[in-house]
Amino acid sequence: MSDPKLDSALAHHQQNAGQYLADLEELVRIPSVSFAGFPAEEVGRSAEAVKRLLEKRGLENVEILTVDGAHPYVYGERIRDPKAPTLLLYAHHDVQPAGDPEKWKSPPFEPTHRDGRLWGRGSADDKAGIVVHAGAVDAWLRGAGELPLNVRILIEGEEEIGSDHLPAFIQKYREKLSADAMVLTDTGNFDTGLPSVTIALRGLVVVEVEVSALASSLHSGMWGGPVPDAAMALSRILASLTRADGTINIPGIYDEVQPLSAKEKKSIQKLPVTRKEFMRQAGMKKGVKLLGKRHPWEENWFRPSLAVNAIQASSRREARNIIVDTAWARVGLRLVPRMDPARAQKKLVAAIRKAAPWGVEVKIKADSHGAAWKTDIGHPAFEAAGRALKAGFGKDPLFIGTGGSIGFVAPFAEALGGVPALLIGVEDPYANAHSENESLDLADFDKATRSAIHLYAELASALRK
Q1: Same domain flag for 12 and 140
Q2: Cβ pair 201, 401 in contact under 8 A
Q3: Fewer CB within 10 Å, N side or C side of the chain?
Q4: How far apart are CA 382 and CA 80, in angstroms?
Q5: The total number of structural domains that make up the chain
Q6: Is residue 448 part of a domain?
Q7: Mean pLDDT for back-to-back runs of 10 residues, the chain (465 residues)
Q8: Do 347 and 386 share a domain, yes or no?
Q9: Nearest of 445, 320, 436 to residue 393 by alpha carbon
Q10: Beta-sheet pairing, 181-184 with 86-92
Q11: Domain boundary pick from 345, 369, 393
Q12: What is the pTM of this model?
């Protein structure tokens, strides 16, 4: 049976979709990079823009929340019916650095329409998530007169750098976060047009490694041969961390990895993607081999992985005939459920130190770490999410894992007493989040907002006290 209020909310969205897209473009123009070395005032400017947006779209008691040393959060709420369930909505307004500007087809902070997509840093990760929440709230308020449940919304300002201040934030603002379920719009769909709910996240351990062999760089002709090269030493260390087949060569790193159940394996085998399609989505060049013997999505979702995120020894622009004195790298180790982050970090550090050749000096800075997360989908909220996504996209959703990390999820789920956490996003395999030429599929953006409108109605019933 048709719900007149739901129909009115959907009609309002259809009439005002262009306004919601304009909201997103305004946010994308702000270079809210939260990394050290980038202007913190831009993240502050982004928080102010998000605050104005939430107020414009009908949220109440909107405020910027701060914790010492952290980039600003933005909070808002719409609490009208004490008998109705309360939903906590989450997204983040900080973004990754733009990367190499020469690789962008259009300026990273100038939203550009091309090929049915919106191009720009933060377009998909995660400013679209903010606007999906705000647009769905607006559609209910201005289209139907009121939301079918209570909502709280929290927009974080340091997700991209690991949410290190999250424990302090929860301790300070716990009373603002009570809810019966969470919706976190910071993940992706399995493919464009194919809605997905993420039920597992990998954790992350990050370390910085600096190798030194000399007081200063030397002429490679005059000193090359007997004098150790810091860049070569670092290369040997990094190469030692994986085997020829791509598996991680750190003693004991797989000890806590749990095998998949027969049901989980069968679910992965049914995914609508071949190894060839996976390689195409990843943008792998001709002749490059895919690593691992398992299904690539099993490798990505449920096996640990290691990557060298950045490396520096002198620079490409200033390359000279020298033996460098110092070389540096940032190494990220992705974890899966039941792997302890602290133990994994110790194993990684020990392996790096053991591999150091020629007596070079090795300094290691443990940057951050976070645990993996996995949820049980037996709660009625997940069935409600499935119905909402099917209504918005016209297809049954998949329940998937993801190789990425969201530091917010596990601490908040624990702080809120284990309430269901619905991870529903707008990214897709072609979004290039964290890389150059990030983009958002505009059709999926529209469908995601429609799904959110349906979701509020579904959860109002599923979570009714």
Answers
A1: yes
A2: yes
A3: N
A4: 25
A5: 2
A6: yes
A7: 91 98 98 98 98 98 97 98 95 97 97 98 98 98 98 97 90 94 94 94 95 96 96 98 97 94 86 91 94 93 96 90 96 95 96 98 89 90 97 95 84 86 94 96 98 98 86
A8: no
A9: 445
A10: parallel
A11: 369
A12: 0.85
